[in-house]
Design a protein that fits this description.
It comes from Methanocorpusculum petauri. Helix content is 39%, strand content 22%. By secondary structure, the protein is an alpha/beta fold.
Length: 240
Amino acid sequence: MLDEIRYARSDDARIAYRIVGSGTPLVIVSGLGDSMRDWKESIIRMLAKEFCVILPDNRGLGLTGMGSIPPQKMTIAQYAADVHAVVEAEGFSEIFLLGHSMGGMIAQEFAVVHPEMVKKLMLFATDYGPESSYRAHLMNRCVLPLQALCMIAPWHTKGFRAGACAIATWPGSMDRLGEVSCRTFLLFGDADFLMHPDVAHEMERMIPHAELKLVAGGTHRMHDLYPTEFAKMVLEFFGM
């Protein structure tokens, strides 16, 4: 089975990504502070039996550098452009796309800008920006203090700081989610303290071809707690 680390050029940055398996490409975009190494190997192996799994490292994390963009200037749109550079480097014209948390924001941006490339979209434990419901507002209000902390706390990586800044300045996708034309699977947990289930129901109403699964007891990182069950849900949606 193919399993390699490769690099794609996006402007002046080298975007590292792991590519595993064969078949229809499934691009998995990680959340704030995560890299390709934070996805459990059991999940990757299960998915790679059916798909060509691609896991990019966001800027400043894992094997990807920041390039010339300082952390405080990083944007969700630039992360989406980096994912597009990876897809183009592999020569894929159509992909399955999965994004977790901040990665879900990046996936939304990608799907709106490149609708012809996304066959199916899975948004996992994410939100659609500063206009979302009260609980998500609470999360977004926390980002600005987090951003300030990241600027003065040396133990945080540049990539973590960049992600916090990107979330804080993202205008959101509220006015654009109606443009998402592909089948979309919304996966949320009802015990997620960051992304309240209200956000899931709001997104279900906004996206034309969306279906929602709300997992009882599911947390923000339920893929870590229940990797086999999570992989089965991914396989079921993208395999249909």
